[in-house]
Design goal:
single chain, 203 residues, alpha+beta, seven-stranded mixed β-sheet, globular
Amino acid sequence: MPKVEKGDHPTEVNARTTSSKLSGPFVNFISAKSGYSMKAGDILICYGGGSSNNSLSNFPGHAAIATSAGYILEMPGTKNRSAKKNARHISKKEFFTAHTKGNDYVCVYRISKHPHYANDASTYAYNYMYKDGNPTYSIVKGYELYKKSPSYCSKYVYYAYWKGATSSAVNKYPKYWWVKPHSLPNYFSKSFHPSYIHKITKY
């Protein structure tokens, strides 16, 4: 179960953002949005039986980083996919459809105090950890935390913030260290600690 910190007030919402029109004696056609409005830098952590997408990991869970309102970067692992250039850029629909089956769900964490750094991290990940320098997937060989490749899902998110935003965004660890998906929020430093804002149960 995800830990709810003091000050966190996560809401359970649909991943799909929808608009509805309201009308009344004083209001005509006001657009009201509901669902999850994804932002660049949002950290997505998956829970449930289908959340571990790779064939090598003993770590439960999966993690990814949003790059925009509609797309997400992830390292899905080696199940039905090559280990080389493993990072992929997929749509919000594809990601949440895959990770909200049955009782599976996704927790959304946002670094609200530093939105520009969140955007910097996602931009760096897209340019230098996907388009160029797309890492090989390996947990066994990905133990060098501050080396971009090999990597795995949660290290990928950690590295994007450490290298692409600011090194002060995350806690410093020894050179050889593993970042676990479900513990990912705890790896961020105090002022960058992400807030748990949504629990996504369906798209």
